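From the pipeline queue, job 12 of 40. The input is one protein chain; the requested action is below.

Action: predict structure.
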Amino acid sequence: MLSLLKRERQAVTRKLQAPLQKHLNHYLQLIFPGATLSVDDNLLPQALIRPQSSNHQAEEYGELEALSFGAREQMGLVSRLAYADLLAEAGRPTLIILDDALVHCDRERLEQMKRILFDAAERHQILLFTCHPQHWDDLGVAPRDLLTLKMASGG
């Protein structure tokens, strides 16, 4: 009986992993062409696998815990966006709220991550709260200061 339950659990996990992996890979291609982010049996990001060279023959495998804090932050955002895509595919509404996301990115990586956010914004509503509005001036939307909004509303 236990082996039957394990097999059934594995089958369900594989069924869920495939669409999640598709969405993870979609976002990763925007920053790491040829890379994949593997997920474990609990559907949690496990490791980043990137080609070492342009010919994609050698791979670099990195457990999430071994990545820099900034890289883990980026993979976390990619994972959340992939889950949001799954919800949207299921007909569920999505709202993504980011609070000082990507503060540990260097300038070049931040620009790459903005491409991911632009892509996701085509399917999801994204609210971005930040203490660094100058990093987000190029989003096409004027930043709004919450204190100013609060004062204007009489609060």
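Job complete. Strands lie at 36-39, 45-51, 59-63, 95-99, 125-129.
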